[in-house]
Amino acid sequence: MNDKIKTLFYCFLVLTVSYFTYFHDYYKPDMAYYDEHHYIIHAERYIHRIVFFDTNPPLGKMFIALGEKLFNPNKNVNMEEQLERGYIFLAPMEGFSFVGVRFFPALFGLLNGLLIFLIFYGLSKNHFLSLMFGSLYLFENSSIVHFRGALLDSTLVFFSFLTILYFIYLYEKKEKKTLINYFVLGLLTGLAVFTKMVGFILVLLLLFLLFKELKVKELFKQVMSYLLGLCVICFAVYYIHVALGSNIILDHDIRDMEIKVGASNEYIQMIKNKDIYNPLKLYIPMKDYFNYMRAPKESLPMLNAEIGSSPLGWPIGIKNISYVFAGDEVNSNKWWYLNFQGNPVNWGFGLLALLLSVCLIIAKITFKIKISNTRIYSYILIFTSLYVGYMITVTLIAMERILYIHTYLLPLFFSFILFFLVFNYIFEEYIIKKDKVLYVLIFLLMAQIFYVYYLTSPVTYGKSITYLECEKTRLINFWEDDCTYE
User: Fold this and answer.
1) Alpha-carbon distance 161 to 121, whole Å?
2) Domain-by-domain residue ranges, the chain?
3) Burial bucket for residue 20 (CB in 10 Å: 0-12, 13-18, 19+)
4) Residue 108: count of CB within 10 angstroms of its CB
5) Cα 157 to Cα 146: distance, rounded to the nearest angstrom
6) Is the dihedral of CA 414, 416, 419, 423 positive or negative?
7) DSSP letter at 199?
8) Which residues of 343-369 are buried (b: 16+ CB within 10 A; e: fewer)?
9) DSSP string covering 49-92
10) pLDDT per residue rounded down to tens, the chain (486 residues)
């Protein structure tokens, strides 16, 4: 079979599985959960041209609004009260449909399955291994439940995967990298950054690319091209955000925190004068937005409050989140739960890969051990740096404000890539020989991932179950999952 046709066939298989795990019936449940209660209002504010600020950049919320605008399922629903209040209640809202607001986050969740397969294939050129290890993402319960909501992280991961995929292309490229290449890498990084600021960790990819090139004379132009790409996305995102805000509601509360949000006098004057489309004055609303993004550090509850958790506990899945809990209207002995609950097999593989990667890097630096495959080792070093850099950054942030375990999803996927790389590094000889025993072992490992996904699926898709059945989905005792009952 032709290699391109074979690749397309595998891509089709991945997309089919990803559709059923991430996208099918994404509009269920018909009630808001977790941060949907204010991201949906942010989307509505774009549609109604109302100015607002948030602790995250605008891009992810723009996609939520775009989905709502495309499908327009709530044109007859009165949202005036919710718009003024700044959030919607988590209880079902009569007549409200989630088809539009959840469309792009769920679509990105689906496409991420394809992207991680292509990342694995770019690293290994092995279709079967890429498909099998793609199960780490395809059957990861925590990302499934989170990416099916009107939330930001599936968009962040989508643009992060695109950036990584393009980086691999450039890293493997034998021809000279052009300034356009660096510009595009900056564009893709910018899309991740201006979805959530944690996307800045991807800037490390530029450093590794520059280090590999080691062309001092070209360094300034390469960095400037990359920064230009970042700035283009920054300008475009904030220009659209400001242009969609021609009305302002002063002195309203955002989320359930006592933070009075208002634009500066200069920004208010811009709105009154209908001057929001002037690109030369974009710095004024951008300054207000960035000031607001910094402000909540002193206002949010501390780490031990609510459902917050320390980044130090994330790799072992500590303190998961109960998104929704409601009684079954038909059977009073049953409830349905929607929990952010990871697949412990996946998380265990990711943690093991991280530990092995760190040990390999330390052994190489300290004891000068011989590396059997320098190409794979280079990628192990790169993704270990991404993981460690991300975790150090969020740990420092956690000293000032509360954080939640879903923030771990991006480094979790870094650990999945590390697991794939470490596996290829250790078993390279057997992979080349297409050892049947190894391939059977791989199949059994992936079957275990699917089995645990299936056991956990009742709280991933909100199925009606008893309290005891919910408790059985907690496969590791020290994971703080929330199965409650009335």
Assistant:
1) 13
2) 31-101+152-299, 312-472
3) exposed
4) 24
5) 12
6) negative
7) G
8) bbbbbbbbbebbebbeebbeeeeeeee
9) TB----SS-SHHHHHHHHHHHHH-TTTTS--HHHHHHTS--SS-
10) 688 899 999 999 999 999 999 999 999 988 888 889 889 999 999 998 988 888 899 999 999 999 999 999 988 888 877 777 777 776 667 788 999 999 999 999 999 999 999 999 999 999 999 999 999 999 999 999 999 999 999 999 999 999 999 999 999 999 989 999 999 999 999 999 999 999 999 999 999 999 988 777 889 999 999 999 999 999 999 999 999 988 876 544 443 332 345 678 898 889 888 899 999 999 999 998 988 887 654 445 444 456 788 898 899 888 788 888 777 767 777 888 888 999 999 999 999 999 999 999 999 999 889 999 999 999 999 999 999 999 999 998 877 778 899 999 999 999 999 999 999 999 999 999 999 999 999 999 999 999 999 999 999 998 888 777 777 777 776 666 567 655
236 Cβ contact partners less than 8 Å away, ≥ 6 residues apart: none
Lookup: tokens for 206? 């530029």
Handedness of CA 301, 304, 306, 309 (dihedral sign): positive
- 114: closest CA among 198, 190, 192, 7? 7
Its pTM stands at 0.93
